[in-house]
Amino acid sequence: MQGTDSPFWPAMELASPSVPDASLYMNLQATEKRSPNKAAIIFNGESIDYSRVLQQVEQLAGHLQQVCGIGRGDRVVLYTQNSPQYVIAYYAILRADAVVVPVNPMNKSDELWHCISDSGATAIITTTDVYSQVAPLLGKGDFLHAVVGAYSDVLGDVPEGRAIAAKATPDTSPLKEAGAVLWWDALKVDRTATPAMAGGDDPAVMPYTSGTTGNPKGCLHTHRSIMTGIVNSVAWHGLRDDDILLATVPMFHVTGMQTNLNTPVYLGNTVVILSRWSPAAAVKLIRQHQITQWTAIATMVIDLLSLEDLELDDLRSLRYVRGGGAPMPEAVATKLRELLGLTYIEGYGLTETMAAVLFNPPRNPKLHCAGIPMQGVDALIVEPGSVTELSRGSVGEILLSSGQLFSGYWRQPKADAETFVVIDDKRFMRTGDLGYADADGYVFIVDRLKRMINAAGFKVWPSEVEGMLYAHPAIQEACVVAVQDSHRGETVKAFIVLKSSSRGVVTEADVIEWSRQKMAAYKYPRIVEFRESLPRSGTGKVMWRTLQDNENRPPQQSER
Question: N- or C-end of the chain: fewer Cβ atoms within 10 A?
Fold first, then answer.
């Protein structure tokens, strides 16, 4: 099934856009040549033009190559919030012909170390607010180098709302760990990078995804797969080079990476960056900078429209709001449309597809709908575990084929074999998601084959959380499930069996606080329930589905 099969296929000048056979770095180089003095980034009141961005990219790439020994295809971890440093570091890694390994800055040391050690990264670019998670890891194995920036390296006023970690002056305090240097120390020597050699088929970015098991796996994308997503998005959404974007979705996530980083650099947009979500700060920035494009998860739109002192005139510059990750509540979508005349355009994608490959046609969207296949995308609804295609309206597993598909999981041939299937000479991936296509060719997601929790747009793998819970000295057994949450969509609940010596001593609140200290903010259990035992199958396995189904029942039917 292709998007052109739908009667609502949007009329686009480029139904199958031409994809440049080049490195993503070349997009920055071309944009700087066209518009060197145009603002690329606005952050805390400071404007940084494309000329300055490119200059710092070149300087940092030289440091990576000459000091850190980074070469073509090497992996470099990028571990920071949305910031100018993120943009510059991302393109500096690409400029060095290396591979960006983006890691959620909410991850703690143990979670971070998995990505470092599994990827074989020898260097990291990070910021002072999360450096405490990095410092204990430096010197382990081949992990030897860190470049550490501060948000205060780019000066300006801190926006209203939730403040970011900023100081009045750039950070010049020395770092005690061997191999760690401050951002400006890395740039000031002005080392010259060797000529860029990477092309379209070179690896470019390797985000980590839980995929089909609980162990996060590197998901390898080439410059070409990312570039395909860029040109498809530009044509589909009618994006323009004069759009001004508000970046609130994190750039370590493929959605934020494409919409707030790669596509704006390709077009030459100005991006206004908000490091941490604050609805009050977002409204101020929309008004101040006349934002026209905003990619947001549903909870951000809910937060913004719930502000008591919201002035609608502050938002009149917005012409396009899109997103995904979690369904938009119908009442909120209606409010957005009635107050501002805006329709929230929903899409569907995966880390493996470098963001959206299904999207609602902008002029004919449907609510709670993944959309129709975008340009060059084939979608099949098949009987789970097979390749037998089902008829319209029948629920089955969604299979996807696209130029945006990743190359494969990093050093995980078994996972690749379970994920990819060739049908009619086309390479498809099994998404693990259940859905159906309606008579118009629109795809609706109805369930997940995978045991994944979607907490405020973040994917949480229960077995990973369970594995971390077992590190608690009082926990004997743990089983993690999803529970419905009016604000986050889903949240994490842990059923716990305590060791006999800890019963009556350790409380549910103790476990939650311990988890908060050990796990990323989106991941730790918000709810803990102690049990005498967990249900088990005849083979002795914990029956997580029984616990999950019980949580999904109405309260009067729940079996405690």
Answer: C
Closest to 343 measured CA to CA, from 370, 321, 318, 372 = 321
Average pLDDT, the chain: 90
- Beta strand ranges found along 374-441 (DSSP E): 378-382, 396-401, 408-409, 420-423, 426-437
Tell me, yes or no, whether 302 lies in a domain: yes
Does 325 map to a domain? Answer: yes
Tell me: do 521 and 429 sit in the same domain.
no
The pLDDT value recorded for residue 137 is 98
Hey, is 227 helix, strand or coil? Answer: helix
pLDDT for the residue numbered 77: 99
Average pLDDT over residues 479-502: 92
The verdict on 107 and 219 lying in the same domain is yes
**Residue 474 or 214, more confident:** 474
521 and 485 within one domain: yes
Residue with tokens 């000295």: 473
Nearest to 324 by CA among 277, 287, 356, 291: 356
Asked, for residue 367, whether it belongs to a domain, the answer is: no
Count H helices, E strands: the chain? 16, 28
Of 164-178, 217-231, 297-311, least confident by mean pLDDT is 164-178
Say what the pTM is: 0.83
Q: CA–CA separation, 501 vs 515, rounded Å?
A: 20
Per-residue pLDDT, averaged over 149-160, amounts to 65
Mean local confidence (pLDDT), 519-547: 85
Query: What is the mean predicted confidence (pLDDT) over 280-287?
Result: 97
Q: Return the amino acid letter for 348.
A: Y
295's enclosing H/E stretch is: strand 293-295
Q: Which domain holds residue 416?
A: 372-448
Predicted confidence at residue 488, as pLDDT, reads 86
Which residue type occupies 49?
D
478 and 463 both lie in a single domain: yes
- Distance, in Å, from the CA atom of 89 to the CA atom of 146, rounded to the nearest integer, reads 12
Strand partners, 148: 126, 182
Do 222 and 137 belong to one domain?
yes
* DSSP letters spanning 425-484: TEEEEEEEEEEEE-TTS-EEEEEESS--EEETTEEE-HHHHHHHHTTSTTEEEEEEEEEE
pLDDT at 269: 99
Domain boundary among 448, 464, 486: 448
Contact 25, 94 (CB under 8 A): yes
Decide: 211 and 415 in contact? Cβ < 8 Å: yes
